[in-house]
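Hi F.,

I've been meaning to write this up properly since the lab meeting, where we talked about keeping a consistent format for the predictions we share between groups. The idea is simple: the sequence comes first, exactly as it goes in, then the structure tokens exactly as they come out, then a line or two of notes. No screenshots and no reformatting. I'm using this chain as the first example so we have something concrete to point to.
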Amino acid sequence: MDFIPSQSSSSERYQDHIPVPIGVEDSGYSTGLANTNFRKRNIKRPEHSDYDSEDFDLSKTDKIKQRKELMRKQALKRDLYIALGLTLWAAYIRLWKIWQPPSVVFDEVHFGGFATKYIKTRFFMDVHPPLAKMLIALVGKLAGLKDFDFKEIGKDYLADNVPYIPMRVFCGLTGLLVVPIAYLTIRGAGHSTAAGLVAAFMVCYENGLIANNRLILLDPPLLFFTSITTLAWTYFFNQKRRPFQFWWYFWLAATGAGLGLTVSCKWVGLFTIATIGTSTVKNLWELWGNTRISKYVFMRHFGARALCLIVLPISLYMMMFAIHFHSLPNSGEGDGFMTPEFQQTLDGHTDIQSPIDVAYESKVFIRHVATRGGYLHSHPHNYPGGSKQQQVTLYPHRDDNNWWTFRKVDDEETKEIEYIKHGDIVTLKHSDSVKRLHSHDIRPPMTDLEYHNEVSAYGFENFTGDANDNWRVEIVEGDKRDPVSKERIRTIHTKFRLVHVITGCHLFSHTVKLPEWGFDQQEVTCIKGGKVPKTLWYVETTENPMLPPETEKVTYNKPGFFAKFVELNKVMWDTNKGLTSSHPYDSRPESWPLLRRGINFWSKDKLHIYLLGNPLVYWSATCSIFVCLIVKAVLLLLDKRGIQKEFGELRKHYDESAGFFLIGWFFHYAPFFLMGRQLFLHHYMPALYFSILLFAVGFDLLTIRLVNRKRLMTAGVWILMVTYVYRCFIPITYGEPWTQSLCEKGKWRSTWDFDCAQYHHDIESYNIKKPLIIEGIDKVKNVFGSYLSNNNRPEAVEVINIVSNEIKLSNESIQNGENSASATQ
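Output, unedited:
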């Protein structure tokens, strides 16, 4: 099929392809993200061209340049008007009844709660980077949020006067701005106004994005920064033939800043970094192969990209954590996730000051090294099975039941100081219950494996113990600044193992929790051949009245910013990997592109919010991915066989443009297959955005032979179809009234598991108050339409008509949907 437009075609037909990003003049180069060459080739020349004559007429060249500049400015102004209109319309769609429901919805439990913790300045731990949470907290603080805890879904906002609406509006604004950004991205990539509108309205009417972006969640800021990064990278590529000038640096730096801000919201931003990184490597490889570019110039290209796309994002990411630490100076519920060294940097945390020497008869707190389960602990509760002896666990807080006393095997009290050395055989006596740390060949309660033995506290008053109470001290490492700590146990400095003398197993703990009868504390066992890190222990606190008063005191070394930054990110990573428990509405990545199921967000008062995407948007975007792959495969096969068509710049333009968005979709989707953690449909939203952009590129290609007016009409028909499907699912998107019968009809797939039994049988039971009709639509249409017509902008007039019709249709749906529902029954 020949995609090359006829040379006899009017130049106005393809005038709509002029890319118009700010700072772009005439790049004259196509990267797949702009195609001014494609535009140039359709400019008709006179039969006897002055370009070929020796007497070159500079005045004609100047006129052509002036005409190009005028067209560029007109196109830019038109796109800005359209983007503004899209923003206003998206604001109406996304912010409509944003106060509804007036209670906690889905993950507002977490992210609203984090905002309260920021306001209280108490440290907490979350698996996501802090930027989006801090922005939400800032809005909440400015709006008057104080101490509301967001502790459960459905908790009422109104009773406590919670300023939840400004917080939702902030998230809604960041989400709705993706609509005009999608339009500008497609236009900046060199595609038609119609294609840009298709992308924008598919984003605007995507029910899943609407339901998600109206709430206090991290996804709206994440999507905003992802889209703005993609836009900046698109505009940067339009400057490829103007390197090292202001706009070239501006858009490159904007891309780097976008990457830093995206990854500072969620680690999904790493996938955006992979997308831009792949494009950067390809670009640098092409530059390296260009023999006209000197090595010096290449190194300037490489250095600028390294500075803006590596150093700048990392700096921004670290800066967000610096602000995070500054905002949470006080001890809080997140302390237990962090090391004792980290905890010492928090105000209000107990400052550990303990004698450095550990001797027999010393009362000690013994802490586990590898996990953050805490202290070796025992309490007066027995195991329900096994030996049924007293439980030994790890407990994360300082408590009197954490005290143990080092004793000699013969249980005789020492009268003078005798330090505990490597190889000593000791017993550990629980100070509160006088029982001894004990192990035997019985399986533990949770880890029923042959190489694990139960650990318990056993004994009674005046009982001298038995051989199963004996443990050998093995010092593994000491502090380099304290050589003595490698020879005998020293507080904090010495890491040691306790080896059971009879069985040879090592005292061990891991991140397995005991059930309710064990108070959800961490299991302690004795393992044969266990890995060193989980069998390491150290003494954190010691007390011994026989120690001389001048004994040196020891405390934790407080880490600096970088050490805290690294530690917190490690904890976030480990915690994120540990989110493997099942959820009633979790899903796997293979189900997302075909929209197999959604997520139940909220149910109350016979109303329901269920996150479900717009099926037409999902399925058409997914089809565009497969079509793109098939077309690329066919073209590669034809090239291999030497069968080539004269596609010219057109193929390069669409191939590279579609290829970039396809790579963006792949990098934001494929990595989830490698994750064993809990996943939900909303994790697909960044990938969905790229697939929508890809669909718009395909639409542009399929309609390339149409004049602009027909192309806009075709786009309008598609937008109406998307709008119709959007309207079908308004009740579960906004939490609006529905009926059981209509709900059942709305289950287009049997796997969509929203609960229709929650709704009334008839719409009259809801006592609905109808919203007011938006007035002045025709007036706005007439004013803008008249202005644009007088300025010779027929395409923009068509856009105004489409938008005004959409407003009327949506308002009719909102006002009359209830009556229609009743009539249908």
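Notes:
DSSP finds 23 helices and 16 strands in the chain.
The chain has a mean pLDDT of 86.

If this format works for you, I'll send the rest the same way.

G.
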